[in-house]
């Protein structure tokens, strides 16, 4: 292929500019192996829908251990098989449930879990984001999760891809038989009001593209609209060769430092003015599947 001088000069200039000011995607793509941690199979939940969608969820055991244990017990007793996605509310949540919420719960299942909406800051570590937050005195990262904090307690932020436990009116806390995932603008008013049990690392685009429900709050009005769930399985219960290898970026790594700075002040060639600020949910923790 022949390159004309003017085009060649433009490409060289563009390449130089990109090298001087890498964008977040480039930083993630070139992050060394030392910048990544492998998610333990005990913390990975694989969800497959009857129409072939594959979703992988990292469980938030550090924030809602009782609710997470309930979800794992439901998975191990195959309670999700034959369940369904029953609600898709535009720019809010996608919600799904087990096959039969009235069935006897599995052994060890906690029917009335505590309100695991926040936890002590002590013992988990906290890295401030460095920018103001509208929903918490401080925003930042704890245990490689986006969180809010008041200096004493810490809680997961309800960002895009966050998986939480649906519940009725307080004092109900939800038991894990109905879950939701945030599919739009972060509804941070939900922070500290529902238990967060995970985040989608693979397949969020598949959940986000489902047809919207036409009923109140986005519920499907006809059972034929429901999206059946084929299975939900803990990765640790699969043969080693069948387990997905999912990694998330270490938030104490130099690569994450560069990624955060780039998210806050985009100076790559497309941008005319750098924002010099970023919202917590606009700094999603990078993840990748290694095949």
What is the name of the CATH superfamily? Answer: Cyclophilin-like
Task: Give helix % range.
Answer: 10-25%
Taking strands numbered 1, 2, ... along the chain, how are they ordered across the largest sheet? 2-3-13-11-12-5-4-14
Instruction: Quickly give the structural class.
Output: alpha+beta
Kindly provide the name of the CATH class: Mainly Beta
If you average the pLDDT, what whole number results? 93
What is the global morphology? Answer: globular
Organism: Gluconacetobacter entanii
EC number: 5.2.1.8
Domain PPIase cyclophilin-type: 46-232
Protein name: peptidylprolyl isomerase
Structure write-up:
With 291 residues, this protein is α+β, with helices and mostly antiparallel strands. The protein is built from five helices and 16 strands. Strand 9 and strand 10 form a beta hairpin.
């Amino acid at each position: 292929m022949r390159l004309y001088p003017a085009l060649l000069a433009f490409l060289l200039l563009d390449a130089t500019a990109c090298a001087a000011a890498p964008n977040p995607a480039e930083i993630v793509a070139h992050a060394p192996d030392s910048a990544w941690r492998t998610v333990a199979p005990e913390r990975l939940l694989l969800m497959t829908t009857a129409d072939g969608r594959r979703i992988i969820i990292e469980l938030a055991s550090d924030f809602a251990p009782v609710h997470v244990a309930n979800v794992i017990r439901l998975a191990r007793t195959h309670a999700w098989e034959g369940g369904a996605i029953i609600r898709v509310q535009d720019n809010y949540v996608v919600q799904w449930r087990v096959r039969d919420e009235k069935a006897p719960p599995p052994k060890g299942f906690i029917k009335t879990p505590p309100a695991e909406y926040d936890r002590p800051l002590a013992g988990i570590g906290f890295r401030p984001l460095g920018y103001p937050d509208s929903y918490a005195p401080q925003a930042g990262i704890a245990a490689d999760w986006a969180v809010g904090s008041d200096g004493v307690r810490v809680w997961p932020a309800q960002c895009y891809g966050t998986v939480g436990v649906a519940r009725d009116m307080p004092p109900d806390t939800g038991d894990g038989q109905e879950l939701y995932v945030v599919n739009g603008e972060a509804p941070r008013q939900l922070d500290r009001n529902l238990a967060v049990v995970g985040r989608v690392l693979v397949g969020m685009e598949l959940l986000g593209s489902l047809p919207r429900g036409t009923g109140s709050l986005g519920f499907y009005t006809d059972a034929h609209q429901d999206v059946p769930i084929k299975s939900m399985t803990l990765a640790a219960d699969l043969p080693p060769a069948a387990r997905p290898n999912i990694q998330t970026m270490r938030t104490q790594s130099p690569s994450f430092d560069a990624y955060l700075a780039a998210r806050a002040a985009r100076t790559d060639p497309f941008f005319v003015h750098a924002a010099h600020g970023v919202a917590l949910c606009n700094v999603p923790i990078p993840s990748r599947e290694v095949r």
